[in-house]
Each structure stands twice: as C-alpha cells, then as structure tokens.
Amino acid sequence: MDISEILNHLGEDRNSYFKAVSPPIIQSSNFVFDSIDDLRTKIQDELSHHIYTRGNNPTVEILRKKVAALEKSEDCLVVGSGAAAVAAAIISQIKAGDHIICVSKPYSWTNKLISSFLPRFDIEYTFVNGEDIEEIMKATKENTTLLMLESPNSLTFEIQDLKACADFAKSRNIITVIDNSHCSPYFQNPIDFGIDIVIHSATKYICGHSDVVMGVICSSKKIIQQIFSSELMTLGMTVSPNDAFLAIRGLRTFQLRMERVEASGKVIFDYLKAHNKVRKIYYPLDPDSTQYELAKKQMRGCGGLISIELDTDSKSKVNEFVDALDKFLYAVSWGGHESLKMPTLAFHDIPGIPDSPIPFQTIRLYVGLEDPTYLIKNIEEAFTKI
Q1: Nearest to 172 by CA among 128, 142, 132
Q2: Residue 190, CA atoms < 13 Å, CB-side half-sphere
Q3: Confidence band (pLDDT; 50, 70, 90) for 154?
Q4: Is 280 helix (H, G, I), strand (E, B) or coil?
C-alpha cells in the first residue's frame, strides 16, 4: 500500500463522523450494546469490537491500522510506552524455566527487564554480540524460546543480520523480537526478513513531536490476539484516545520528517567524520563501517542518530564541549522536532552506580528538524572547547 494512502486515509471512515478531515477523539471509557446477544457476540472478540477503552477504542483502532500497514504486519497493538511494548512482547512468549538470548547493550529498560525482573520468575538470559550469528547459535540452549534483537543497537548502533537470525530462530522454534525504534518503519521493515514481532517506542519517530509517550507492537494476527487477550488486558497497558489522536496527527508528517532528519543527519555525519577532533564515529551507513553492506541490505536510511567519540582524554573538556552545544538540548529519547545530546559522561562517576561500559568521550547526537548549517555552526563553536 502506498505510504500516502496509509498516512492520510487508511482506517478513516469520514462518512461515519460528519465528513470531518481529522478523526474524532472518542473520549469514552464505555460503549453500549443493543441487547444481551449483542454483548455476548462482541465479548468473544474484544479486539475487533468496542466494549471498554482499556481494550479497544475507535481512535486507537485507526492508529493501529496505520502502524500495522507501515510495518507490513497483519496487526498492531498500541500501549502506554516503549518499555511496555518491550515487556508485553517478551513476556507473552516465555514461561518459567525458559532462556532468552538478547543482544548486548540494549535499551536500558530492556536490559532491566531481562536481567533483573524476569529472573525473579525463573527466566534465564544470555547477552551476546549480535553482530556475529555464530555467537547467537553458540548461546542457544534447549530451553531457549526467544531472541531479542535491537538493530541498530542503542548508542553504538551495531547491526544484526535479520534474515540469518530469523532463519536460525525458526529452525529452533525460537520467537524473534526486534526493537525497530532506531530506523522507524520508514527505513526498515524487519518482517520482510522473517522477524516475528516488531516493537517501537512510538514516542520517537512515529509520534514525532515530543508530546506523547507510547509504544507499539506489530506482528501476526495470532500473536497480536494472544498479547491483547493476556498481557495487554491483564496488565492494563492502555493508551488514551487523546494520545492516539496526537500520534495520528504526528503521522501526517511522518514521511516528511523522516526524509528531513535523514538528509540533515547525512550532512552532520559528513562534517563530523572529517573533523580532526572526532576519534570515532558511529553511523550504520558509514561507508567505512565493517557492517556497511549489511546495513544497506536491511535499511533504507539512517534517520537522525549519530554518536561520536571525542579525541580527548579529559572529562572536563568533554563536559565543556557538551555544554557548548547549546542548540542541542540535554534530554533522553529522540525522534522529535528538536535536536538533542546525550553524553555517556553523564553515566560515569555516579556514587554507588557502576560506570557505563561505553567510553566517557562518547556523545549521542540526535539531529532534528533544524537547518543542518545552523547545527554545524554550533558544533564548530563547541569544538573550540577541546
């Protein structure tokens, strides 16, 4: 389906709401029935009917259809955060005594779920270098039931071979889950390579305006029904109709925003790669990367994330550089209109907490919708500090 059709029309029945261009916010917790038989029929398939907004809501349903189409999946669930999407997807596919394989250095709350929360319920785990399919194969046990991927990886953007991972997992009846937030559905569709479940922090590119916290889960109708009937309904992972409306509004400019951050990101990348004060640069579509060919095979673009390692061994100089980047906001997350900076130095020298394994000279930049020349001018000023 054409992306213009998805973003502007799919799921929208304007004849049913006064021919309004924008869908209404159905801000109702409850929906009424015509009879006992009507209730009896609908309660058997709550995902397809409107009974109670904790389950299915008309405004949320429009968003579900659009995101499923963007990810080329059969269906989609919308939940209250990206962390909720990770948790629901993983928990739905495991039981006590199972073993999970996960790529190393995942998103912090994915790490916490797998390494701290799930072991309380007799779940084993192994973190592996996802760049090497052999490591995944060697880590597999008889009780391995789930492979958690994140391609590109958080902060340093390692790539996994999605088709190789999916093919191996299917041969061992292992479910594959991927966090596809880095690329968004615009630049990568893991289902095309055989991945079973695709999740996003929709807070980022899908919503795109830094005003909504949301997660999505995309998969087959069978898996989505399973998650809906168990994890979503039991744990109450509800998203509000108002937030769904904001996400739909964000999707109207999704293609434009993704093309803009991709183009600007390339300009910033080229500038930083050539700079003599950058010791190392992390960008999946860097032609000099050992994973460049794999990235080109799986990804249609890179978006606005770039990480650099400054050529200094002084923490004070790193701090001065980051402070001088005043056109980039200090903030977690990314994917909105505003450019952001996240220094690894912030996760070093915290009393009682181990230092980050990533060098303190590393800074993740998110390139937003600003003019890249405006941002480069600010970066150049910051480089004078080191």
Answers
A1: 142
A2: 32
A3: confident
A4: strand
